[in-house]
C-alpha cells in the first residue's frame, strides 16, 4: 500500500467513523429526546391574572397527555414576559438561543406578541399565538411561522354581533373602547358591518388603558340618544365599566353589547348582577350545553377551582392542536418547514368547542361564532350562554380576501365606517 | 359630544373627594416627616383588599372600612419603626426604601388575592341612583363626596383645635425646635404616620367600591396623589383640598373635552405650577 492510498482509505474511514459517531446520536436524539417548548406569559404586571390562566390551560393539556406525545417527552420551559415587549423579546431570545426550544408558544398582549413575531420572522422558529389577535399578523404582514392555533383576529369576532344588532332593529349605536390597536380593531369590525347594514355609529369614545374613573365617559354615552352601546374593554377596565354602567342607572335602559373579552370569565368571575344579561360574541362560551365544552369546563373547574376564561381555553386548545400534529408526525418535528406545513394543513379535532376547526389560507382559524348572553348557572355563578350561532365566520367575514386586503388596516382614524 | 353638564361636574367633585382622602394622608407624612412615601399607593391598595375581604366575610361595610384603616395604620407603624428608622435623615434612601416596600407589598397582594379585579361590596342603602338635574347619579358617589367633606373638616379641627394638631403644625415648620421644647417629636411623627397611613386605608376601602381593586391600582392613585400634593404644596391641608379639586375636575373635564389629551390636562398645569411656584399653591419654605 503506498502512502497516497493509505491516506485516502484511512481518511475515508476516519470520515465515516466521525460522521457516524456525531450524526447517529444526533438523529436519534431528534427523534426520541424530549420536545422542548418555550411558553411565555405575563406572570407579573397588569395582566398577570390572564397570564396565569395561560399557563394553567397550557399545562392542563400536556398533563392529560402524561407529558409525552408519540413517545417523546414534553418539556415546558415557562418564562414571564411581564406584559412588556422588551422583556418578551429578551425571553424569546433566551428560550431559542440558550434553552434551544423547538418552538415558542403564548404571550398575551399584542405588543409583546408583535415583538416576538418580529424576532422569529428572521430565524424561522415556529411561534404559536392563541390569544395575540393583531389583525395584520394573518393579513397584510403575515409571517408563515407565526400561527394562530386556536386563536383569532381582533376584528373577526365582533362582526357577527353587529349583524345580530341590526336584526334586533338597533339603528343608532355608540362605541367605547380602550385606546390601543386591539380596541381599534375590534371596534372597527363591529362598526364596519353595522354601518354597511344600514346602521349608524353615532359616536366613538376611546379611553386610555387603565381608566380609573369611567363616569365622564358614561355621562357622555347617556346623552347620545342611542339604541345600544358597544363596549370593548378588558381586565380591570371592563369590571369598572360594567360596575359604573350599572351604578349610573344605564343598565336596563340602554342595551349593552360587548366584545368577547368584555364578559370573559376573567372579568365576570368576581362580579355580581352588574354583568347579567350583557350580550357579546365569541367562538367559545363556557355556558354552552355542548358535551365536549362541558367536559372541559368541568375538568378545568375541578383542577383550578374556577370557570375557564378565554385565555385558559385558548391555550388548552392551542396545545391540543399542536400536540395532535406532533402525534401525526410521529414526534419528528426536526424539519421545521414540514412541521409548519403540517400544522397549517391540519384540523383541530375533539377540542372543547365540540366541532372541528380549520385554518383559512392565511393561517387564521374559521369558527362558528356564538352570540352569548351572561346568565347565572345552577351553581349561582355567572357565565356566557350561547343564544345564537353564526357558522363558519372567517377573519374576512363575507368579503373577498383579495379585495378586503386592499383597504387600509384598521386604526383609530380608519374604522371602516360606511358613510 | 354632549360637552359639560352637571353630571360631569359632579363626577369631578366626587373623584376629587376620593383624591383628597388619599392625598391628605400623603401630604401629612410628606409635610411633617419629610418622607415622600411612595408606598402610600400600595397602602391604599392593601387597605382596599383588606376592606374587601372583611366586608365579604362579615357583610358589614363599616366594619370593612374600619378594619382596613386599623390594619393599614399598623402597617404604617411597622414601616416607620421597623424600616424607616434606620434611614432617618437620608431623603434619597427613604424614597428608595418606600419604593421597595411598595414593590414588596404589590407582590404580596398578588400572592394573597390574585390578579383578578375586585370591587368592594356597597351596603344596600348606598346602591342605586338618585335623580339629579335630569339625569341619574349614583348614591354611592354622593356618599364619597360627603365623606371627603367630613374628612376635611375632621382633619382641619384636629390640626387647628387640638394639642396634637398644634404639635404637628409646629413640627412641619421646625421639628428641631419642637424637640428642644421638651416634646417627644418621635411620638408625634409616629402618630402622624399612622394617621396618614389610615387615611390611605380609608381611601382604598372607599375607592375600591367604584374604582375597583386590581394590581397597579396603587401606582395610578399614587400618581394622582403626587399631582395633588405638588399642586397644593406639601404639608398643607387646604393645599391638598384645592389640589384634589383641581385634579379631579381637570380629570373629568379633560376626558370629556380633550379626550386625546386626557393626561396632559392634569400634568400640564402641574408642570406649570412647579415651574412658577415650586412649593405649590399653598406650600411654604421649610
- Unreliable spans of chain B are none
Helix residue percentage of chain B:
over 70%
Most residues in contact, chain pair and counts:
A-B, 43 and 43 residues
Span between termini of chain B:
47 Å
Q: What is the CATH homologous superfamily assignment of the largest domain in chain A?
A: Response regulator
Provide structural commentary.
The complex is a heterodimer of chains A (419) and B (286). By secondary structure, chain A is α/β, with parallel strands linked by helices. Chain A has helices spanning 3-32, 48-64, 85-98, 110-123, 158-167, 181-196, 215-222, 236-247, 265-268, 291-304, 310-328, 336-344, 401-404, and strands at 35-41, 68-69, 72-80, 103-106, 127-128, 146-147, 172-178, 200-207, 228-232, 256-258, 279-282, 347-348, 357-359, 365-376, 382-393. Chain A folds into 2 domains: 35-154 and 308-367, Rossmann fold (3-Layer(aba) Sandwich); 158-289 and 368-404, 3-Layer(aba) Sandwich (Rossmann fold). Chain A is built from 13 helices and 15 strands. In chain A, the strands form 2 sheets. In chain A, strands 7, 8, 9, 10, 11, 12, 13, 14 and 15 form a 9-stranded mixed beta sheet that branches. In chain A, strand 12 (347-348) and strand 13 (357-359) form a beta hairpin. Chain B has one domain (16-216). The radius of gyration of chain B is 19 Å and the shape is globular. The longest helix of chain B is centred in the first third of the chain and has 28 residues, at 6-33. Chain B is built from 11 helices and 2 strands, in the order ααααββααααααα. With 286 residues, chain B is an all-alpha fold. Chain B has helices at 6-33, 40-58, 61-83, 91-113, 139-161, 163-173, 175-180, 185-207, 217-232, 237-257, 264-276, and strands spanning 129-132, 135-138. The A-B interface holds A 44-52, 203, 205-208, 210-213, 215-217, 219-220, 222-224, 235-236, 238-240, 243-244, 247-250, 266-267, 269-272 and B 1-2, 5, 7-8, 11, 14-15, 107, 110, 114-119, 121, 128-129, 135-138, 140-141, 210-212, 214-217, 220-221, 224, 251-253, 255-256, 259, 262-263.
